[in-house]
Amino acid sequence: MKEKTDNLIAQNKKAGHDYFIKETLEAGIALTGTEIKSIRARRINLRDGYVQIINGNAYLENVHISEYKQGNIFNHDPLRKRQLLLHKKQIARLAGIQSQQGMTIIPLKVYIKHGFAKVLIGVGQGKKQYDKRQTIKKRDQDRELRRKYRVR
Fold first, then answer.
1. Which of 3, 46, 71, 125 has fewest C-beta within 10 Å?
2. How many other C-beta atoms lie within 10 A of the C-beta of residue 81?
3. Contact 74/34 with Cβ under 8 angstroms?
């Protein structure tokens, strides 16, 4: 029997509502001991997170990883910047994309892969209010069609 290698920990559902996701990229995260324990306990929030390119390094900012309950004095700061583990060419390409007007890099999912925490980041372009309404309208129409033609 094949064992499951991808273990979804957290997902940013608001990202699909607020952004058009152009492309995605998988990256590792540099974490401390108590951070990985909190992530395995699913104590992470991606909602307001984003990726910032600073001095040739990619950092995951504003992602809340709660303190580990049994961590005592070794606990981490919940909102600290965390370095993303990417190749230099990938970082350079992301820096070029981020410099464009209206483009941002956001975390979409965090999961455990082969024992390591990975983050799926997406290059997104912000939606306008009318785009959000259009998306909601299309989703409701698809739901009605599925409901109408459901096989019983």
1. 3
2. 14
3. yes
Neighbours of 84 (CB within 10 A): 25
- Pick the more confident residue, 59 or 68: 59
Which residues make beta-bridge pairs with 84? Answer: 29, 58
Task: Read off the pLDDT of residues 93-146 as tens digits, 9 standing for 90 and up.
Answer: 999 998 888 889 999 999 999 989 999 999 998 888 888 888 889 989 999 999
The amino acid occupying position 104 is T
Phi, psi of 10 (to 5 degrees): -145, 150
Closest CA to 85 of 104, 113, 48: 113
Does 40 have pLDDT greater than 60? yes
Which residue in the block uniquely carries the two structure tokens 């499951």?
Answer: 4
